Amino acid sequence: MPLRPTSALALAAALLAPPSALAAGAANLSLGPAMRGPASLSVGTANLSLGPAMLAPPPPPAPRPAAPAVDIPPDLVHVAAAIASAEETATSASTAAGASSKRSAAELAKRLVAGQVMLRQKDSERAAVVFLDLLENAPDSPAAPQARFYLGEALVQLGMKRWAAECYSRTLADPGTAARRLHQRAVAKLLGLASPAQAPGHARRPGLGAMPELRARMQALGLSPAAPQTPADPPLGDLGPPDVQRLRGWVQAIAADQRIAELRYAYGRHLFLNKEYSAAFAELDALMPAMPPFNPRSPDVRWHVRATYIAGAAAAALGQLDVALARFDKILGARDLAEREIRDLSWMARARLHLDQNDPLEALRAYRQIGRDSPMFAEAMYETAWALLRAGRHEVALTALDVVLTHDPDGPVAPEALQLRGKLHVQQKSWKAAEKEFTALRRDFETKAKSLSAALTVEADAAAYYTEVARAEGPEFHLGALLPRGAGVFARTMRRAGQAEHLARETGALERTLRETRDLLARMESAAAATERPRVFTDLGAHWTAIDAAHFQLAEASEVLLAKAGERLAQDGYRKLEAQRASQRALVDKVRGGNSRQARQLGEAADALQQVEGAIASLRAMLLALERGQLTSGRPRTPAFFAEATALRAALADSEAEANRLRARISHGRLTLRFTDPIHAARRLAVADYRDFLNAALASASKAAGDPAINDLLARMARADKNLAAARVKVEVAAAKRLAAAIVVLREERANLDQYAGEFAELGPRANATVGETTAAAVRDVRGELRYWTLRSEVGLLDVAWALQAGEQDEAERLERTRDQAIKELDRALDQVMEAIE
User: Fold this and answer.
1) Considering only Cβ atoms within 10 Å of each terminal Cβ, which end of the chain, N or C, has fewer?
2) How far is it, in rounded angstroms, from Cα 716 to Cα 739?
3) pLDDT number for residue 24
4) pLDDT of amino acid 590
5) Superfamily for the 105-198+233-275 domain
6) pLDDT of residue 115
7) What mean pLDDT, rounded, does the chain reach?
């Protein structure tokens, strides 16, 4: 049950979009009478007949005489600056509130490029928000088709492949010019979704990724080790067979020379995975028919390199080994290529083909080209040991195996490396070393198998226990944590174990995503219901806060003016006035420097939650230590242990769920308080009361002072107050318009998320129960795999015994031959002596 992309992305796009994206839907906004313009007044002049004179344009207004300039004394310059700053704040806020609701093509293009940069930097979530914003809020712009295509790429990176396929399909269905340029790329992306990549453990199957021992067995049976032995059915991806057939018909309808490089590569790869090797080779090799060197500066060089590699693999599957080697050598001969993984794969393929042709020296040269920092280094060193074994260099082969076990002791090739090390000792006739090696391996595998047998003493209770572990761990569920140390290596190679782990992680990730999205939706709903709506938006909230700061600046400027005017007042009267002003200012400072009761309560709750989370973390650590200790002890697990462990796991999961719920409530409370905190209104009211007091005091003091500079500054301050009040109204109206469209989206997504929550409430427990049963079965499979490796170790001991017996028999036969030869020499010497006597 994957979430619809808009569940997590449209919400963010709705509130993060600029004013143009949210201007729609504001037509039904109801304004109070004070905010209505003259158009709302009914004057009854619909049938009024106007004469020509009245229809003529009015004469231009007569120019007003300029007011005489007033000199501002130096000690009041900063007051004039504060008033000018307030005027600038009002102008900026009015401009932002009345910004155009339509973004230009250049702005949309810049936003599209910004999303592409995020996508390249693997910031998939933010990129998806950008592309969804362009797609939903500017659907008719030239950037929309490209946004739809790149939204598909972002969704692929987020694991939402079904919705990515829908984006690519809609791109194909779009007949517009901008979309037609992306049609071939969309088909290539859909082919990639239809043909999944190699599954984990592909190195254990035949083909260019097979292990040397498996390749040798296939050669012994007369089979080609270079041909991938895939199942009869083609690999199934995220598209059904009818969709795949339509895609293939779409590709075939395009002339071969008209297909872009990305499409040719995707189509050739699809053919290769479907075992159509001849067609795949023809499609891929046609990209570079004359075999020229790669151009690292070409925008299609990555497709050329990958196509050349798969063409080589297809040629090897067809038995054309020389052609395959030529393709791999072309990749290896190129310089300055960024495709490091393809180069390492080419070296591995070249080495394996030479090893198949019994040319270990050439294979060694290829294996040595793979560096220690490559993810294929362990496999390369393991196969190097096989090549050295064929070349008769046993000591160096042992060193290579030691490097493998040191570099990746828990890797998938580690068990094979341990077995091969014992076989090398046998080849060297180091019987004691070989016996010690295989004995240690058998003991290790037997210990792990016994531990798992003890873990599955009560299988029904074990399944319930694994169910609770999956519910508690969620996305962090790891099968290796439920197995003895080293047994996780074998679990990774089993399909059932991988499926159980994947299902547990997907279920936990879906639950977390659903919870976080619902929390996000609740916070957005709180923001939409805010009393101070401009604070919901970053730009309008900044202007809203700046207006409040400007009012406080004007209050401080009024204080300076009052002090200036008070110089000409009577000393007693001014002292009394100053005392009143100080008491009023103290009230303002108290409100501005304090926090509301709700903010203090939220801080106390956050501190308490932190202590609870610490206790939960300690309990989790203790529980994990007890479980691990029980697992490694080898003692059988009783029904009482499983019952207690299951109850503790369930209690831990419930405690963490409750902690998550409290954390979400605190986060929601903080966000709500940000928009509805009464301290904002209290501060604004305190500043307003203080300004009223200052204005009244200045009105009487300025008359007594009779200073023209003070009177001029007071007039400017009155105009600034008027402009700030008008700007505040405009900002509030702009915020209401933006929220009008967002509220519609919030209502839709609330219904969607409630539906998803209901479905998950039904499917989540079933998924966890399935994980528990599948994990118990996977643990049984791992136990069987450990028994298999134990048997192989015992076979190794038998090989040592047989080799020792064969060596002793050879030594006995040699002694017998030596004895017979000595007897013959003695008989011949006696015959000569007898002949000499006669």
Assistant:
1) C
2) 35
3) 34
4) 81
5) Tetratricopeptide repeat domain (1.25.40.10)
6) 92
7) 77
